[in-house]
Amino acid sequence: MLATGYAPATLRIAANLILNDTTLPMAVVAPAVEAHGLDALFIGEHTHTPVDTVHPAYPGGLPEFYKRFLDPFVQLAVAAAVTSKIRLGTGVLLVAERNPLELAKAVASLDQVSGGRMEVGVGYGWNRLEMLNNGIDPKRRRDVFREKLTVLRRLWTEETTAAGGEFVRFSESWSLPKPVQRPHPPLLIGAAAGPATFDDVVDRADGWYPLYEPQLGSQMDDLRRRAGGRLPPVTVVEMAGQRGDPWYFEDEEARRRLLATALSCHDAGVSRLSVGVPADGTARLEAALEVLGQITF
Questions:
Q1: 178 located within any domain
Q2: DSSP 234
Q3: What proportion of the chain, given as a percentage, has pLDDT over 70?
């Protein structure tokens, strides 16, 4: 456990959502998340799921939700329309697999319609077949990611922009409107700890968006050293209940584990913990949000 001086004043709590055509809709879930006082909600994306996909966390085959991702910008537009305070985040956008002109426009538009509430979690991608189908060489994914992320920041901050790189080329262009937030919505690198990830967090982004791991404290120390003693904002994702273990509101031991995770994150200097919540029924959603709304450190 790190020294008390590293801990933020408070640990903000967010909801990590997996919503699709078989769950409660965002128009129901987002207002409930806000009503329980949570700080933010985050949703992920995949353009599609190749049938031959293999995921190490699911040796028996992919769960159904991996096949049914809704478009994140449609989802977050709905969330923006039915809420007024919570932050709205992607966790994460697969930047290498997207057109940066279209992506810059979508993010800026959402920041506009939400009144400046967007947070942009971005990742390198893990699904080799998905990358190949989107025209990306998996061996070059980080190179593609970095070039496109640089272009995105320029599109949000420059009056006009042109690109002539290896992976992105377009003539001098306007990309309007700009985001409400200046210089742009926070960019969070969603990837596991490591020198390359931390280089990108410090040099190309505004924060880190990892999955929770027991060695988080030492990882945060590594990030702090890489950042010259400054700790960038960190939003940790806890997938509690979403991989077959009991939900924290149904099992006392699971609840104790969640609270221990929250305390560990607080003591390590994490600024926000994003916890998985069920969306298969109103009663279960409310039960989860009731627990999360009471976590205070």
A1: yes
A2: B
A3: 97
The residue written with tokens 């003693």 in the block is: 229
CATH number, domain containing residue 158: 3.20.20.30
Q: For the chain, how many structural domains are there in total?
A: 1
Domain membership flag for residue 173: yes
CA distance linking residue 188 with residue 197, whole number of Å? 11
**Domain of residue 155, residue span:** 4-292
In the block, tokens 């190749």 appear at 50
- The C-alpha atoms of residue 20 and residue 16 are separated, in whole angstroms, by 13
Q: Strand 207-208 relative to strand 187-189: parallel, antiparallel, unpaired?
A: parallel
**How much of the chain is helix, strand and coil, in % rounded to 5?**
40, 15, 45
Q: How confident is the model at residue 269 (pLDDT cuts 50, 70, 90)?
A: very high
In angstroms, the CA 269 to CA 217 distance is 8
Q: Is residue 225 part of a domain?
A: yes
- Structural contact between residues 285 and 24, judged by C-beta atoms closer than 8 angstroms: yes
Q: Is residue 297 part of a domain?
A: no
The residues near 262 (Cβ < 8 Å, ≥ 6 apart) are 11, 13, 273, 295, 297
* pTM for this entry: 0.95
Q: Are 173 and 115 in contact (CB under 8 A)?
A: no
Read off the pLDDT of residues 158-193 as tens digits, 9 standing for 90 and up.
Answer: 999 999 999 999 999 999 999 999 999 999 999 999
Amino acid letter, residue 294: Q
DSSP state of 297: -
169-173 and 161-164 beta bridge pairing: antiparallel
Q: Which two tokens stand for residue 277?
A: 């919540």
**What is the rounded distance in angstroms from the CA atom of residue 248 to the CA atom of residue 238?**
11
Q: How far is CA 32 from the centre of its chain?
A: 19
* Residue 9 in tokens: 């004043």
